Amino acid sequence: MGQGRVRFRCLNPDCGAEILEETLWMVTKNTVYASLLVKRQLEEVLKAKIEGLEACPFCDFMAVLDQGNTVFTCMKCKRNSCRLCKKPDHLPEECEDIKEKTAARTHLENKMAEAMIRECSNCKKRFIKLDGCNKMTCSCGAMMCYICRQPVANYDHFNYDPAVDEDPSKCPLWKDSDTIHRSEISKAAEAVKRTMNPGENLQTTLRWHPLTS
Predict the structure, then answer these.
(1) How many Cβ atoms are within 10 Å of 109's Cβ, its own excluded?
(2) CA 155: distance to chain centroid?
(3) DSSP calls for 141-202
(4) Is-catalytic flag, 133?
(5) HSE on the CB side for 155, CA within 13 Å?
(6) Sequence-separated (6 or more) residues with CB below 8 Å from residue 57
(7) Rounded to two decimals, what is the model's pTM?
(8) Which pLDDT tens digit goes with each residue over 154-205?
(9) If DSSP codes are grouped into helix, strand and coil, which group holds residue 24?
(10) Phi, psi angles (nearest 5°) of residue 33
(11) Which one of 133, 140, 148, 171 is the catalytic residue?
């Protein structure tokens, strides 16, 4: 049943007969059997090739709609979807506009996530720091600075206590990881947005954020 089948045959290779309905009813849980019946009904309806028949992309509800209606309103899950692209209702925008925005949003989200990831200069292993100091030691033994991402040999690269020994040419040994990541994500997002069409704003449509997901 996990393979989506609605008909089952005997497991004995010498038999191959279809398992009786009564047997399925006895050996399966009520919820599983009920789900099986629903799938069978859907299969039969689809085989009938009823003109105008539309299936909800979010649940198993079906209905016959007029050809001029491009929005499917599901009476079961109460969600609206586009009959053309099977995505959530996006009128008055066209399907192609939604595809472009989805691709742009995904690109932005990927760049925001990539901004946090470091790569060992020696073995190329990728990682993110959650806490601790900014002198990172990879499992291969290579050391690097989490702030500027450059290889280091020791602690001479860092300011131990900027309040006492402040050197602008050195990176801070201690800095909150969330603060570092938020700054990097913000810069990455701004860099991507500069390549977008004027006036296009994806900030309100982001579905994933690397610091909150």
Answers:
(1) 19
(2) 39
(3) S-EEETTT--B-SSGGGEES-TTTS--TTSEES---HHHHHHHHHHHHHHHHHTTSPTT---
(4) yes
(5) 6
(6) 81, 86, 87
(7) 0.51
(8) 999 999 876 666 788 899 999 889 999 999 998 988 888 788 765 555 544 5
(9) helix
(10) -65, -40
(11) 133
